[in-house]
Amino acid sequence: MKTRRCIFVVFILCMVSCSLFLVYAATSPELQYGIGLIHETRQDYHQAREWYEKAAAQGYADAQCDLGVLYFKGYGVTQDYHQAREWFERAAAQG
Questions:
Q1: Are the CB atoms for 60 and 29 separated by under 8 Å?
Q2: Average pLDDT per block of 10 residues along the chain, 95 residues long
């Protein structure tokens, strides 16, 4: 009986930890950018763009720059030099 309780407690703790991580991921531009990098490394450019956009919308310069690269190279998006330039300029404006 004690073993079942311990397993249940560990399960609940894991679920709470995962929930907190998801809440943090939904609001942290640094974490959103990191998730985008993971997807880009795996060449899943569509997912990378989605995560970069979340971070870029919060003013995260690295994500804005990497969005510019995706648009410049046409990775996961239609190649668009105008969009690329806009993202590069947003990132550059922050230093």
A1: yes
A2: 58 53 69 96 97 96 97 97 97 89
Residue 18, classed as helix, strand or coil, is helix
Return the CATH architecture of domain 28-93. Alpha Horseshoe (1.25)
Confidence (pLDDT) at 75: 96
Token couple for 87: 């993202």
Q: 58 with 94: CB under 8 angstroms?
A: no
Q: Could you give the C-alpha distances from 12 to 2, 21, 22, 24, 25, in angstroms and in order?
A: 15, 14, 15, 18, 20
- Tell me the three state secondary structure of residue 43: coil
Under DSSP, the state recorded for 95 is: -
pTM: 0.74
Taking the C-alpha atoms of residue 78 and residue 62, their distance in angstroms, rounded to an integer, is 21
CA distance 83 to 69: 10
Cα separation, 6 vs 32, in Å, equals: 33
